[in-house]
Design goal:
Shape: elongated
Oligomer: single chain
Largest sheet: 3 strands, antiparallel
Helix content: 40-55%
Distance between the termini: 79 Å
Radius of gyration: 26 Å
Structural class: alpha+beta
Number of strands: 3
Strand order of the largest sheet: 1-2-3
Length: 113
């Protein structure tokens, strides 16, 4: 039959392991929280998009293409799906993301609504 004296070292070992895992969890959560990108409010985004729209509409086509190429890494078309891979500058550095373009986008070019 097992006594408390027999189980005590194993219980102590498991509690120490649990503490170490908890510390690791806190470190990972802290690390992940530093990677979050703080998004601006909707009004600021709308104003920035309006400025960008004006700049792109008023710029010569060669400058518009150069600007877009500065952050768009790849546009891949597969059947009905278009995947856009781009780099977005942020305060923490560059943020890379690949997104699928909505199926309602029927054409590209210099057309905005």
């Amino acid at each position: 039959m097992l006594t408390q004296d027999d189980l005590a070292p194993r219980i102590h070992e498991l509690r120490e392991s649990e503490k170490a895992l908890q510390v690791t969890k806190w470190e990972l959560e802290a690390s992940a929280s530093h990677r979050k990108v703080q998004l601006s409010d909707e009004q600021s985004v709308r104003e920035a998009l309006e400025d960008l729209k004006e700049m792109l509409n008023d710029s010569p086509l060669c400058e518009t293409r150069a600007f877009i190429r500065s952050f768009v890494k790849e546009v891949r078309v597969t059947g009905e799906e278009v995947v856009l891979t781009y780099t977005m500058p942020t305060a923490q550095g560059l943020l890379e993301e690949a997104i699928s373009v909505l199926p309602t986008v029927n054409y590209g070019g210099r057309y905005w609504t």
